[in-house]
Design brief:
- By secondary structure, the protein is an alpha+beta fold.
- It has a domain of 106 residues: Umud Fragment, subunit A.
- The chain contains 3 helices and 7 strands; from the N terminus they run H-E-E-E-E-E-E-E-H-H.
- A hairpin with a 2-residue loop joins strand 3 and strand 4.
- Helix 1 packs across helix 2 and helix 2 crosses helix 3.
- The mean pLDDT is 85.
């Protein structure tokens, strides 16, 4: 095989493995909390356009990691302008904090999607907030959502693993044939 072709095949193979690892990690973090309780959420609506487009993934830093200022007066965990993910009934919502209200050390946040004309109807308590959005990656969410389906599992997990195993079996059989050929050459040389 020509060196350039072999290099190209190895490069494609490596890129495929890296993409699968990224999608696998993003999918796992979208289902389970990762190290340090970091989570990934998929943006499913256009309420945060242009900051977060539909199909993006959002990496959320848990509330416990949020910067807390030592102060004699109670301070809110999140500030105006922060993008937070919170639970609204059973769904997660990622919106920007547009107002902070508090009394007796209890704070509630007024939130709004960047593309929405009005703020959200209900205010969000600190207990509802899952964390602060620290990173948004466009388009990866489409792959994460696809990976969660049965067909996605087959295409992104089963087929690549089968191809990797098949490739490794071929490598092992080539190496075994080479070792057998070397032994035959040594026997004939004696």
């Amino acid at each position: 095989m020509k060196p350039k072709l072999k290099f190209a095949i190895n490069l494609v193979y490596t890129l495929l493995v890296v993409v699968l690892i990224v999608f696998g990690a993003a999918t796992a973090l979208s289902v389970f909390a990762g190290p340090g309780n970091f989570r990934v959420f998929v943006v499913g609506s256009g309420s945060m356009n242009p900051a977060m487009k539909i199909g993006s993934i959002v990496l959320v830093e848990p509330t416990s990691w949020a910067k807390k200022v030592a102060s004699p007066m109670p301070m809110p965990v999140f500030n105006k302008g922060d993008i937070v993910t919170y639970l609204s009934e059973k769904t997660s919502v990622t919106h920007r904090v547009v107002g902070v209200e508090g009394s007796d050390g209890q704070f509630v946040y007024e939130t709004k999607g960047d593309a929405n004309k009005a703020a959200d109807r209900e205010k969000v308590s600190e207990k509802q907030v899952l964390g602060k959005a620290i990173l948004s990656v466009p388009y990866v969410g489409y792959g994460v959502n696809f990976a969660r389906t049965q067909l996605g599992y087959i295409f992104l997990i089963v087929i690549p693993i089968t191809l990797i195993i098949f490739s490794e079996i071929q490598n092992i059989s080539t190496e075994i044939r080479r070792m057998i050929a070397d032994r035959r050459k040594r026997r004939l040389a004696i």
